[in-house]
Design a protein that fits this description.
about 120 residues; mainly alpha; 4 helices; about 85% helix
Length: about 120
């Protein structure tokens, strides 16, 4: 089954990385706007864009959950690691997908930290 889901996983991870970078950029813009006392319309516009991106990230997470469920794995860092191990056992090259996943995790941590700082502002 992993032979069928793996190409989907690669596409999803690329999309997930793009969305994660997009959210980080929006949070950075928000941080700059807060530092420079931007007007409420600007902050409101950023909030709307963030909400849309978060919704798309939620959809990404649901899709990844479905893929992992086909392999009876949880949607978690451990589940993804196990998924990549299963893929490697059937000789699939996971280097690109593993890198994408690690980047998503790293950017997600940056987003969480920046969102907390913005919220405190």
């Amino acid at each position: 089954m992993i032979n069928k889901t793996y190409p989907i996983t690669e596409k999803l991870l690329k999309k997930g990385l793009d969305l994660s970078v997009n959210l980080l950029n929006q949070l950075s813009t928000e941080a700059d706007s807060l530092k420079h006392n931007a007007d409420s319309a600007t902050i409101s516009n950023i909030a709307v864009n963030k909400k849309t991106t978060v919704s798309q990230l939620d959809q990404f997470s649901k899709q990844m959950t479905q893929v992992l469920a086909t392999e009876k794995l949880p949607m978690s860092p451990i589940g993804m690691t196990e998924y990549f191990k299963k893929a490697e056992k059937v000789s699939l090259n996971t280097s690109s997908s593993t890198r994408l996943w690690k980047e998503i995790l790293s950017i997600s941590n940056q987003c969480r930290d920046l969102n907390e700082k913005n919220g405190a502002s």
